[in-house]
Amino acid sequence: MGRAKTIDEVQLFQETEKLILESGYAGFHFKALSERLGVARSTIYNYYSKKEELITAFMVHLLEQVVENMDRASRSDDPVHALIQLWGRYANIHQMMQVMPYIDKEASPKVQKSVEAMFQLLQKMRSKIKDILIEEQQHGSVRDDVPLDTLAGFVMSAVQIPYRHQSEEEWAEEVYKLIRSGLSA
Amino acid sequence: MGRAKTIDEVQLFQETEKLILESGYAGFHFKALSERLGVARSTIYNYYSKKEELITAFMVHLLEQVVENMDRASRSDDPVHALIQLWGRYANIHQMMQVMPYIDKEASPKVQKSVEAMFQLLQKMRSKIKDILIEEQQHGSVRDDVPLDTLAGFVMSAVQIPYRHQSEEEWAEEVYKLIRSGLSA
Amino acid sequence: MGRAKTIDEVQLFQETEKLILESGYAGFHFKALSERLGVARSTIYNYYSKKEELITAFMVHLLEQVVENMDRASRSDDPVHALIQLWGRYANIHQMMQVMPYIDKEASPKVQKSVEAMFQLLQKMRSKIKDILIEEQQHGSVRDDVPLDTLAGFVMSAVQIPYRHQSEEEWAEEVYKLIRSGLSA
Amino acid sequence: MGRAKTIDEVQLFQETEKLILESGYAGFHFKALSERLGVARSTIYNYYSKKEELITAFMVHLLEQVVENMDRASRSDDPVHALIQLWGRYANIHQMMQVMPYIDKEASPKVQKSVEAMFQLLQKMRSKIKDILIEEQQHGSVRDDVPLDTLAGFVMSAVQIPYRHQSEEEWAEEVYKLIRSGLSA
DNA sequence: CATGAATGAGGCTTCATTCAT
DNA sequence: GATGAATGAAGCCTCATTCAT
Predict the structure, then answer these.
(1) Of all nucleotides in the shown strands, which has a C1' nearest the CA of D2?
(2) Which terminus, N or C, of chain D has the lesser number of Cβ atoms within 10 Å?
(3) What pLDDT sits at residue C5?
(4) Is the domain of C94 the same as that of C160?
């Protein structure tokens, strides 16, 4: 019944991500997206009836993946290390998140729901990081002379360190060293 | 009394910065800007004949300030410390820089010039950081088991660590500790 | 159990009427209609291959009912009274008729036919009213110092008098008095 | 300062009225309007930033005129007569009013204000009619065996009686007779 | 210079309608 | 027949930019 789909959500999300990374929120239109997908602009409206709905749905999807992976990370031997490796893999979340302030949060009820979900996920991320750090503080492997919030911010900010010429793995190793023991020789 | 309002270029830049910080590139319009300045939209065209010209001119201005301050920082006792303090003061440069990818660089010759200038200034920033780090490596106070680029990225990324509840000074102290010696207790 | 839903034409007309009364021509979409019927939008096209075809078919159907009832009314003791009672029952025809000007009459041959039929039915309505009035004029119970067209218009306009707090019957009685003997005490 | 206007509100209202009367709410677009006015579509947005704002502003303007004229009418020798004459002159208000249900009342704060104003004006119209009728009831020239609301509805509905081949004056005279003394000979 | 007016380009959305299963 | 998918045309709206005073 009905004819075969020419696009699916996976493709939609893939191209959405690419487009946002390349052109940011302002440059993200259904027009551009439809051209990349090779469908009519209006076709996309059959999937998401508002620009904001697609973007936020995608971002929720992305954050969910990250949070899921953080769970795994926190159970590893060296959770901080695992976290940094995760950052290496999802280097673009941070960039994606920067789009958030520009989203019209009242665009539709669906958008509102997604935005709420995003905040909760971010909350979860932050608290998972803190949990990891607290745990390590108790083992004496993380300093406690700096407020937890700042420590967490420090760990999260590492996601911003650009890849230079390294592989993802090299990047993670180098950054891990710095996060652990700083610039000092 | 009642004579035609004239635009004060200082105010122009101030409002430009505010507007970009509040709304990002997408939300930066001459319409909004003119309303804040209390002049007609078309008046701004007597100063900058293109949106991009204004934005890029402003960004060059901003970067020049930062670079100037970096010069001073690099001559201080503890240049890394001074740098972090600088980040505290210019916490928004990073956010400002994020609009760059969305600028149509071919918009006009003036824009092209400004964009070139910006790249050179960014270049300068990066190399100043590297110079500082190299200098410290020679004194043995900065590690050399991590590539210089990554070290520089690490220092720059600190600008992203959000203020929590601290003053600018507290923020700088805490972050400095982390940059210097990392998470380790 | 679970066999494909089929459209009931009676229901189709019912929902069409409701929708037009609630939302007017502008608010009448196959989208809304299909939702109310619980079928796919495209299914309606198996019955009416154009929006206009459905609307006009429905209106013909409605007018036919009214004309039929007018026949009965004109054979009653007091035909004017019966007419006003009829208006009470079909208070919405007038509202329905107001969508006519917006219909694209050339939309399809079927539409053209329906539109013609509608005009003939309206013609018939008008002339039935006139017949009734002429008959009464001959009995001396209706004035002849006002052109027949205006008299007919007067009777038809009564359909517009809104229900206030009365039942349909009360409305008809009150309006009948006014139509018969006017405002005068 | 600034260049000379090419359209003014008067023209805008005139063409708005014509367009609505010809094509109804659904057929009223800024595109059609701009074509008639010989300006670009976007120009109209400099005057009214939403379709609904223009329509409702116009309707308020129209009702205000009518209400003003009703004041004059109620002070005349035969207020009911004057009212019917007024209906002759503003035969289109009723048609215009039918557009109301389709207006998105939440379209903008300005729209909301206008809609409120419209309701108040309609309220005023109705109560002015009632005042007139009450006054006449006290003089014994209007019946009191029919509820006031119905009487008022009866008077208002007269606006719907179509012109046949008469002048405005003839129409008013004929309709006045009917309103006063009904169909009876 | 400052301004108010006009405009075009470009993005957003909604539907009627067609297609393939 | 019934359906879900795809589409194009049409209307909405917002700006950057230009023009004439």
Answers:
(1) E4
(2) N
(3) 62
(4) yes
Interface probe with B: pick from A104, A144, A150, most Cβ of B within 10 Å = A150
For strand E, the positions having any atom within 7 A of a protein Cβ are: 1-21
Touch test D–A: 3 Cβ pairs or more under 8 Å: no
Q: What confidence tens digit (pLDDT) does each residue in A14-50 have?
A: 999 999 888 877 778 999 999 999 999 999 999 999 9
State residue C2's pLDDT score: 42
pLDDT classification of A68: cutoffs 50, 70, 90: very high
pLDDT (0 to 100) of residue C103: 82
- B117-140 pLDDT, tens per residue? 999 999 999 999 999 999 999 999
User: How far, rounded to the nearest angstrom, does the alpha carbon of residue A161 sit from its chain's CA centroid?
Assistant: 15
**Together in a domain, A32 and A109:** no
The number of folded domains in chain B is: 2
Report the chain A residue with the minimal C-alpha distance to residue B161: A153
Q: Are residues A105 and A171 in the same domain?
A: yes
User: Do residues B80 and B150 share a domain?
Assistant: yes
For residue B48, give both structure tokens: 């900058």
CB-CB neighbors (< 8 A) of D175 in chain C? 150, 154
Nearest residue, CA→C1' of E6:
D43
Q: Which of A81, C170, B143, A134 is nearest to D145 (CA)?
A: C170
Question: Can you tell me whether residue A111 is helix, strand or coil?
Answer: helix
Do residues A35 and A108 share a domain? no
Judge whether residue D45 contacts strand F, using its CB and a 7 Å cut-off. Answer: yes
Tens of pLDDT, residue by residue over A130-180, are 999 999 999 999 999 999 999 999 999 999 898 888 999 999 999 999 999
CB atoms within 10 A of CB A131: 14
Q: Six-digit token pair at C104?
A: 């694209």
Opening angle at CA C58, ends C55 and C62, nearest 5: 135
Averaged pLDDT of chain C: 91
- Lowest-pLDDT range, B5-19, B95-109, B171-185, C145-159? B95-109
| Cα-only R_g, chain B | 19
**If you count DSSP H runs as helices and E runs as strands, how many of each does chain A have, helices first?**
9, 0
Q: Which chains touch A (3 or more CB pairs under 8 A)?
A: B
Model confidence pLDDT, tens digit, residues A90-118: 988 887 887 887 788 888 999 999 999 99
Q: What is the mean pLDDT of residues D134-160?
A: 95
Which of residues 12 to 51 on C have a Cβ less than 7 angstroms from any strand F atom?
Answer: 39-43, 45-47
Dist. CA B76–CA B13, nearest whole Å: 30
Q: Which of residues 14-43 of C touch strand E (CB under 7 A)?
A: 28-31, 41-42
Tell whether C15 and C81 lie within a shared domain: no
CA-nearest of A24, A20, A158 to A89 is A158
The reported pLDDT for the residue numbered D35 is 95
Range C97-103 contact pairs with CB under 8 angstroms and sequence separation of 24 or more: C97/C59, C97/C122, C98/C24, C98/D98, C99/C20, C99/C24, C99/C25, C99/C28, C99/C55, C99/C59, C100/C59, C101/D23, C101/D24, C102/C25, C102/C26, C102/D23, C102/D24, C102/D26, C102/D27, C103/C25, C103/C52, C103/C55, C103/C56
Of residues D129, D110, D4, D6, the one with CA closest to residue D59 = D110
- Assess whether B106 and B142 both reside in one domain: yes
Whether residue A34 is found in the same domain as residue A125 = no
Contact between residue C160 and residue C88 where contact means Cβ atoms under 8 Å apart: no
pTM beyond 0.90, yes or no? no
Question: Could you give the CA distance from residue D147 to residue D85 in angstroms, rounded to a whole number?
Answer: 24
Domain coverage including residue B27: 1-47
Which residues in chain C are closer than 8 Å to D177, comparing Cβ atoms? 143, 145-146
pLDDT tens digits, residue range D45-58?
A: 999 999 999 999 99
| Nearest chain C Cα distance for residue D104, angstroms | 11
CATH number for the domain including B1?
Answer: 1.10.10
Is residue D168 within 8 A of residue D88, CB to CB? The reply is yes
